[in-house]
Amino acid sequence: xxxxxxxxxxxxxxxxxxxxxxxxxxxxxxxxxxxxxxxxxxxxxxxxxxxxxxxxxxxxxxxxxxxxxxxxxxxxxxxxxxxxxxxxxxxxxxxxxxxxxxxxxxxxxxxxxxxxxxxxxxxxxxxxxxxxxxxx
Length: 136
What we know:
- The protein is an all-alpha fold.
- The chain contains 6 helices and no strands.
- The chain has a domain at 29-101.
């Protein structure tokens, strides 16, 4: 278990990012979700699941790099790069799940539920640190 002093990105950095970018966060509408799944299904069919595995690995590496840079310089976080890479990874993960459809989505959701339950229990045993209190 890592217990070092990992830098925490202050809430003000996140708020500043969104105000500078004038980003609006909206929940996907049913039509948007249907169109998204259609596009992602078409991508899997067109490029093939094996190719999408490779692209997923590339996107994961790019996310890793963006997060590493964020940790290296928490005072000047490039949140846009991190958010963009998260979007890429989520898109690729959805394509992988579509490739295994229909059982994979239910199986993944079952694992997520299990892991969230464990995380909830784990958090009960760890108090919030002073550093975390200052940045929330």
